[in-house]
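Budget justification note: compute hours in this period were largely spent on complex prediction jobs such as the one shown. Inputs:
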Amino acid sequence: MSLQESAPSLAVVGVTGAVGQEFLSVLSDRDFPYSSVKMLASKRSAGKRVAFDGREYTVEELTAESFDGVDIALFSAGGSISKEFGPLAAEKGTIVVDNSSAFRMVDGVPLVIPEVNPEAMKGIKVGMGKGALIANPNCSTIICLMAVTPLHHHAKVKRMVVSTYQAASGAGAAAMEELIQQTREVLEGKPPTCNIFGQQYAFNLFSHNAPILDNGYNEEEMKLVKETRKIWNDTEVKVTATCIRVPVMRAHAESVNLQFENPLDENTAREILKKAPGVYIIDDRASNTFPTPLDVSNKDDVAVGRIRRDVSQDGNFGLDIFVCGDQIRKGAALNAVQIAEMLL
Amino acid sequence: MSLQESAPSLAVVGVTGAVGQEFLSVLSDRDFPYSSVKMLASKRSAGKRVAFDGREYTVEELTAESFDGVDIALFSAGGSISKEFGPLAAEKGTIVVDNSSAFRMVDGVPLVIPEVNPEAMKGIKVGMGKGALIANPNCSTIICLMAVTPLHHHAKVKRMVVSTYQAASGAGAAAMEELIQQTREVLEGKPPTCNIFGQQYAFNLFSHNAPILDNGYNEEEMKLVKETRKIWNDTEVKVTATCIRVPVMRAHAESVNLQFENPLDENTAREILKKAPGVYIIDDRASNTFPTPLDVSNKDDVAVGRIRRDVSQDGNFGLDIFVCGDQIRKGAALNAVQIAEMLL
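Corresponding output:
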C-alpha cells in the first residue's frame, strides 16, 4: 500500500498529457509512497477525471496556490509552464522534478539520470524544509547515456557521433494519434492530415521538428551535445548528433559511434553492459536479433546491441552500438520518478 | 523513338522484380535506343506479359542461350543468378550491367557510379566485339557517394560515419507489400504477418536483415565500407556504417558524419553540392525543410540537406549531412541504365 499518512504529498503537473499519464502509471507500478496527490493541468483540462492507484481524481487547474503543502511535484507540461510555476513551487518548499528543457542547462540545477549521476542531487531530500528544482534530461540523452556511460567510465569517451530514430511520442499524444490517422489515410489513398508536423509522417521520416539554431543544429541535437557534458561533468567530450523522426510509436532508437581515450575491446564492453543497471543486451548475431523500438515499448530498461569494434578506427579505441529505449518511460516519466525516489 | 535498327539489342534479367520493372520504366523515360529487347526471368515468371515502350512482351525463361546476339544485359535477379549467367553472357559478347553484389568486389570488374567514377569503365563500349561485366554498387553506397564524392574531391574524406534509414524496397516488392499488409493488420489490432523479415516492421524498425559477418558488421554495412574504397580508388579512407531498416516504402535516408583531411566550411560545401550532378539541396533552416524519403521517391536525383559544420570537430574539418535517394531508381535501375548509356 503506497498511500501513507507520513509519506510525501505529491503533485503531477500536466497530468492529462502522454508523460503525465505515464507518471501515474509508473508511480503506481513502483508503489511510490504518498500521503496525497494533486492532479494538475491547464484550465482546459480542469474537471476531467483521472484514475490513479484504484481511485478517481478530479483534475484541478494549475495556479500559484496549487503547491501549498506539496512536497514533490512532477512537471511535464511544456517549458513555459515550467518556467512560470517551477520556481514558484520551489520557493514554497516543493521539490520540483521537471521534464521540460526549461532548467536543464541552468547552473545549480541538477540534471540527473539516477543510474548515471545520482551525486548531482546530493543533499536534496524531502523533509529538509527546502524546495528545489531538479531537471530530467531530454529523452534522447537519457537513452543514449544509459548505455554509453558505463563504457565511458571504463575507457573515457573522447567523441561520440549519434544518429537518432525518434518516435512520435516525443511530440506528445496528439502526434501519436496523427501518425495513426495519417497511416490510415495513406492506406486508403487519401491525402494525409498534417496538423502536427505539417508534412506526411506515415511511411516517411524527417529531420526532428525542433527549431534550428544558428549553427545549423536543431535544439534536440544540441541537447544531446550539452546535456551529455553537464551530466558527465566533462566539458571536453565531443558530441555531434543528427536527430530524425521516424514513424514509430513510442520508443527511440539511436545509432552511436564512440571514440575512446583508452582501449576497450568489444567483449569487455559486452561484460560492462551486462552489469550496467537499467540496461540489457539484445545482441544475437547468429539469428540477426538486435534491439528494436517494439522490444522496449512499455518497458523500463534500455536495450543495447550491435556492439562491435569500429572498423574505421585503429585498435580497440572505437565501438559502434545501437540503443533502444521507451521514450515516455525511461526517456521521461520513469527517470523522473526514479529521481523522486531518491528524494525520500 | 528509341526503337532503332542500328541500336543495341537489350536483355533485362529479372524483369518481373521491383528493380526489373524500374529498368523498363527508366529505359523508356530516357529514350534509351534499342533494336530489340528480351524480357527474361525465372521459369516461374516465364509466360507473363510485361509492357514496355507502348508494346507488350512475353517474359522468357532465362537460359544459357538467352544472350545470343544481345549487346547489353541489365541484371537484377539476385547474386546467384548473376554468378551463373553473368560470366556466360559476357563470354558470348554481351556487356552485363549487374545490380547484384556478385561481382562488385572482383578485381577487374568496374564498380561504377557514372557521376563519380566513369573512368573505371574506360574502353568498354558496345560494338567493340567484347563482352564485359560491370557492377552497379549497392543502393546505400550510391546514394551516399552521390553527395559525399564532390566534397571528397575538394577536401579529401579521412573518415566517414554513416547511419542509414533504409526503405522496404531494398528487400524487393514482396517486402513493400508486407509492410502495407502488416500496417493494416496492426491498425486493425491483428497480429502482423511476418513472412519476409520474421518480425514486426510496421511502426517499428530493425537492424538490416543482411547476414552478420565475423566482425559484427552486417553485409550491407561492409558494402558501404568496401565499395567506397573501390569506387574512390582509395584504400585509406575509413568508413563505418550502421544500417537500419525503417518502415518507409522506397527511398533510403542516410545520416553522414564526415572528417576531412583539408578544411571545408559549410558554405563552400553548399556551393559544391549546388553544382554536383544528380544532386540537389533541400536545406531551409528557417522553415525546417530538409530532405525526406517522400521528396525523392520516384525521382532521379539525390537530395542533400542538414549541411552543417560538425561541432564535435575543431575548425572546418568536419561536416554533418543528411541524404535521401530513391532506392529503386538512383540506388539501382537508374544508375544501371546510366552505365548502359555510357556504353553507346
